[in-house]
Please model this.
Amino acid sequence: MSSFICGKKSWWTTTGGALLAAVAFLTATASAESEPVPLPGKIVITNQSVGGINAATPFTREAIAAALPQYEIVEGYADPEAGNRMVFEAQKGGRVSLRIYPDTKKSRVISVVVTDPAASSVIGTAFGKIYPRASAGSCRAGQGKMSGKVFCIAPAALNVIYVFTGKGEGSGLPPDKVLADWTVSEIVWQPM
Model:
């Protein structure tokens, strides 16, 4: 099951506010392009929404199910072993496609993480097919437990981050030639 799990700890609990600060910085430095074209069977990810989920979506099973009718919505935990932060998982055929995270009051959706190529054709796409170089996506290397990943702003959505993984040396930003073959493993959306 592909998810934001780093070992046995969830991506969300290991990064905390660091991603929020990075998103704010990256959002301020990128420029928007055209909106994506919907593909049959895939969800559309824009600045405003992921599928039918937007900044006003309540963090309830009913609201999320209404926003993502093609998925089964089940409860899960950001850290399954600790059971400390409930999330909703959008599944299809028993496979997790999206994880939906709440704000601290558990009243609204604060983040959606897409991990399944069946949900978005961007998952699995090579860096070189999206960006000519790292600076084009305002890319940054992951820090700490996110080391070995690269985070870049999506070309058409300022609050969407593509997370790239691949082979390379060191924990910094790989050279563009190496990064060109890395692929999108996760897409992170947060409302503006």
Summary: The first strand starts at residue 5 and ends at 6. Residues 5-189 form a domain with the protein yfey like fold fold (CATH 2.60.460.10). Residues 17-29 form the longest helix (13 residues). The mean pLDDT is 80.
